[in-house]
Automatic annotation (TrEMBL):
Domain NADH:flavin oxidoreductase/NADH oxidase N-terminal residue range list: 3-339
Signal peptide location: none
Organism: Aeromonas media
PANTHER family, alphabetized: NADH OXIDOREDUCTASE-RELATED, NADPH DEHYDROGENASE 2-RELATED
The protein's name in its UniProt record: Alkene reductase
Pfam families: Oxidored_FMN (PF00724)
C-alpha cells in the first residue's frame, strides 16, 4: 500500500492518512469571523489526514491582509466552532494556524492607523499586502514602515498568542500551529539583518530566537505541548526576507531548541519547493531529522510521486499540499485513484465578491463517467 495513504499517530492524535492540507490565505470573511461558507470549505476537504487553517491573526495589530478571519474574540471563536464541528463530523482533524504579520502590514488595517510593529524599523519594500489603497479601495499596497517593539511589548504579543490558543481549544480545534515562517514577525526577530536590537531579544542567535521559543513554551503551558506545533521556512526568501549573517548557525540553533521540546509536529516549508531548495535548506532536511525525533511535516510544491519518495526516504512523516487543494476538495481520493486533478482559477484565490463561493466552495469532487 502507498505510504501516503496509511494512518499515522501524531502525538495523541490519530490521522487517517499522511496527507495534510497546507494553510492558505483565502480572504473570504467580510467581518473577520468564519461563517458557514468557511465551514463548508474546510469540511469539503476533510478527507485529508490533517487540515491546517489559513493564518488567523491573534490580534488586530497582527493583521496584515483584509478579510482574514481572526481568533482573538468571542465572536471569532464561535465562528471557528462551526468549522471544527463540520470537519469533525466528516472524521477530520484540524489545527488553527496562529499568525502575527509584524512589519508585513499597512496603517490602513491597524487601529488608529498606527505603524506595524517588528523587531526593528526596516520596512518590507519588495512586496505588497492586501489593504486599502489611497483611494480607499481594497488592493495591493506596499507595507508601511514599522516601529521597533519595546522590550516589554514582546511579552504582550506572546500573551496574545496564548489567548488565541486558548480560544482555539475552546472552539474545538485539535491543536494550534504557530506561524513562524514566510518573513512574518518571528522571522523578523530571527534575522540578524532585520533585528538590530541590543536587548535580550537581539544580538546573539539565542537572543534572536528567544521570542519564538518563549511563545511556544507559553502556549504549551496553557494547552499542552502535544497540541502545539510550529511552521518554519528555513532560508526562506519571500516577502522581502533577505540572507543574513549567521543564518546557518541560526537554523542549527533553532533545530536544537525544538529537539528539546515534544511538540505535536514541526512544519517545514521549503522554497521555492522541496526538490529545488537552496543547498543550505537542503542540508537542513537531514540535520533537522537527526535532532528532532517528533513528527515532521514538509511543504513545498509536492505532488504524489515526490511525496511518496520523501516518505519512503524517511525524511518526513506527513506531506502538506497547498494549491492542489484549492480546486480539488477530494485531493486524497484523486491521488489514491490516479484521477486527474482539476486546475484552479488564480483570479479567484483572494478577495470578497458578489459570489464569495466562486473559486472557493464551488469546485466539485471528481465524477466517474
Amino acid at each position: 500500500m502507498s505510504k501516503l495513504f496509511t494512518p499515522y499517530n501524531m502525538a495523541s492524535i490519530h490521522l487517517k492518512n499522511r496527507v495534510v492540507m497546507a494553510p492558505m490565505t483565502r480572504t473570504r470573511t467580510l467581518n473577520d469571523v468564519a461563517d458557514e461558507l468557511v465551514a463548508l470549505y474546510y469540511a469539503q476537504r476533510a478527507s485529508a489526514g490533517l487540515l491546517i487553517t489559513e493564518g488567523l491573526p491573534v490580534s488586530e495589530e497582527g493583521r496584515g491582509y483584509l478579510y482574514t478571519p481572526g481568533l482573538y474574540n468571542e465572536a471569532q471563536m464561535q465562528g471557528w466552532r462551526k468549522v471544527t464541528d463540520a470537519v469533525h463530523a466528516k472524521g477530520g482533524r484540524i489545527f488553527a494556524q496562529l499568525w502575527h504579520v509584524g512589519r508585513m502590514s499597512h496603517v490602513s488595517l491597524l487601529p488608529g492607523n498606527q505603524a506595524p510593529v517588528s523587531s526593528g524599523i526596516i520596512p518590507a519594500t519588495n512586496t505588497t499586502v492586501f489593504a486599502f489603497t489611497e483611494s480607499g479601495e481594497p488592493g495591493a499596497v506596499t507595507p508601511s514602515e514599522p516601529r521597533a517593539l519595546e522590550t516589554e511589548e514582546v511579552g504582550r504579543i506572546t500573551e496574545d498568542f496564548v489567548k488565541s490558543a486558548l480560544l482555539a481549544i475552546e472552539a474545538g480545534f485539535d491543536g494550534v500551529e504557530v506561524m513562524a515562517a514566510n518573513g512574518f514577525i518571528f522571522d523578523q526577530f530571527l534575522s540578524s539583518q532585520l533585528n538590530t536590537r541590543t536587548d535580550r531579544y537581539g544580538g546573539t542567535v539565542e537572543n534572536r530566537q528567544r521570542f519564538l521559543m518563549e511563545t511556544i513554551d507559553a502556549i504549551s503551558m496553557a494547552i499542552g505541548e502535544d497540541k502545539v506545533a510550529v511552521r518554519l521556512s528555513p532560508f526562506g526568501r519571500i516577502y522581502d526576507l533577505a540572507p543574513y549573517d549567521n543564518e546557518e548557525e541560526t537554523w542549527a540553533s533553532i533545530a536544537s531548541a525544538l529537539g528539546q521540546r515534544k511538540l505535536a509536529y514541526v512544519h517545514l516549508y521549503y522554497q521555492p519547493n522541496y526538490n529545488a531548495a537552496p543547498k543550505e535548506a537542503d542540508s537542513f532536511k537531514s540535520s533537522f531529522r537527526n535532532v528532532f525525533d517528533g513528527t515532521i511535516i514538509a511543504a513545498g510544491g509536492f505532488n504524489r510521486s515526490i511525496a511518496e519518495e520523501a516518505l519512503e526516504k524517511g525524511e518526513v512523516d506527513l506531506v502538506a499540499f497547498g494549491v492542489p487543494y484549492i480546486a480539488n476538495p477530494d485531493l486524497v481520493e484523486r491521488m489514491q485513484n490516479d484521477w486527474p486533478l482539476a486546475e484552479s482559477d488564480r483570479t479567484t484565490y483572494y478577495g470578497i465578491s458578489s459570489s464569495p463561493e466562486k473559486g472557493y466552495t464551488d469546485y466539485p469532487a471528481y465524477q466517474l463517467e
